[in-house]
Every structure is written in C-alpha cells, then in structure tokens.
Amino acid sequence: MLKNREIMLTKYVWLLPLLASICLLYSYDYLNEIKFNCLQKGLNIIDSIYSSLNSDSNSVSKFNTEQKVFTPNQLKKYTNLKDGLYISILGQVFDVTKGAKHYGPGASYHAFTGRDASLAFITGEFNDKGLTDDISSLSVQQVKALNDWVQFYNENYIYKGKLNGRYYNEDGTPTKEFHSIQRILVQAKEKQFEEENKKRMFPPCNVEWNPDSGTIVWCSKKSGGIERNWIGVPRMLFESSNFKQYRCACVNLDSKEYEETKGMVKEYDGCLKTAIKCVVKTNNL
Questions:
Q1: 3-state helix, strand, coil in the chain (%, to 5)
Q2: Which of 215, 219, 191 minimizes the C-alpha distance to 204?
Q3: Phi/psi at 65 (nearest 5 deg)?
Q4: What is the rounded distance in angstroms from the CA atom of residue 11 to the CA atom of residue 4?
Q5: Which DSSP letter does residue 264 get?
Q6: pLDDT digits 0-9 by tens, 160-207
Q7: What angle do CA 124, 128, 134 make, to 5 degrees?
Q8: Rounded CA gap, 222 and 205, in Å?
Q9: Among 31, 39, 144, 217, which residue's beta carbon has the most beta carbons within 10 A?
Q10: Which of 210, 227, 178, 223 is nearest to 282 (CA)?
C-alpha cells in the first residue's frame, strides 16, 4: 500500500515545476499590473502637483500685479470715478468704486477717499483733525471696532494693497505701529472672551417695567439669550471692585462660580433669597 503511494507520488512529481512556473508567471503579471497601477497613480499625483503649482504661480503673479504698496501721493489720485475711488484703513487699501453713491464726489463718505482716515471711522469727525491714520487716542474696544471695519471692506470691496506710512514700510512689511495695533487687538479678543465667559456664568436677567408694580427682574433657562439647564436667582453683580456699577445677573447658588465671586454679588432688597422673580426699586437697577 505504501509502495503504491510512492509510485503515484513519483508519477505526478513532474507537475510541481509546472505549477511553480504557472504561479511565477501569474505573480509576474500581477506584479506588473500593480507596478503599472502605482506608476499611473504616481504620474497622476505629479500631474496634479504640477498643475497646482502652475495655478499657485499664476495666482502669485496676479497678486503681484494687482496689489502693491502705495505712497500717500499715489493714493491721492484715487478720489474720482475716472481713476477710481480708493480708501485706506489701518494701512490697507481698498477699491470702493462700486460704492460710488457713498464714496463718490459729493457723497457722504467721499472724505475717506485718497487717504488713510482710520480715526474718522470711529469718531465720525470729517475735519483735518479727524481725517488721520493716528488712532492712538482710541480705546481697546474702539480699535477692535475699527478692525471690524477692515473685515467689512475685505468682505465687500476689492483689496488693492498697502499704504506706505504709519502701518507699512516701503517694501510692504509691517511697522512697529502695526504690531502695536495687533497687540491691542489680542487684548480686545481676550477681554471679549472674558466678558462672554462671565455672561455664560452669570447671564443677564429679564427686565420689565410695569407702571403699577414697578421694575421686575426674573430669571429663566433662556434669560439674557443664554440657554442653560439651570434658572438661577436675580442678583446685583458688581463689575468692578469699587462697587459703584452693577447689573442684574442670574446666579446659580450651587455653582463654583458663585462661591468664587460671592463677594461681588448682592441680594436685592425685599427679594427672597431663592426667588426667581423680584420687584425691585428703580434706583437698584
């Protein structure tokens, strides 16, 4: 029996090299297919990168030809419909020609054209004193408001370049004044974040005046426009340590925030400690 198996194995042993050859050829074709696919994908990637680089190059070229650094004298040219209407704010130049009804000759904001009149965007003074790029007299919040105007022009008009002067050098690099403004904007954002965080912790009360009952303050899960899963109770929240200015805030008496700022919070006279609605004296608000 064992001998018969050996004879049978010997009879078919020649098939082994044939099977190996077939497998090798198959694997060779398979590998070639993989190589071809990889090569094709690689060429497609290279082509995409090349096209992207060409696109970026064209964009950069377009940027360089359309945007430049203006001198104050060059900017003065753009105060009419023939040459165009350009304004500058914080050293950034915008083409506002499409808004000619606002910026054209004789229009309300024509004084802004051909110059950087950043200060007047906040003060509204369209005289020699107000039409200046010196904003050193503005508060942090006013500088933030001025930067909001920059965003407005970026979104609604055509950015043309920079103005050499207070905020940009001849080569377009930022000046010390520019960096100073950026630091102020960082402070403004930090202050805004702090105020928003404080409003989330102590949302404003709902306030209503009734000729019969007087001023009513109350809290709800949406008072102050801030949705939350607690209601809170009305309290006088003093914004500074001088205890002169305060606002009505909804306070969560079980919160960590209340425990940490308890000294800045005061109950309204005649209002129960746990009441969510109070009638208060007018001079308390």
A1: 50, 20, 30
A2: 219
A3: -80, -30
A4: 11
A5: G
A6: 999 999 999 999 999 999 999 999 999 988 888 888 888 889 999 999
A7: 75
A8: 9
A9: 217
A10: 210
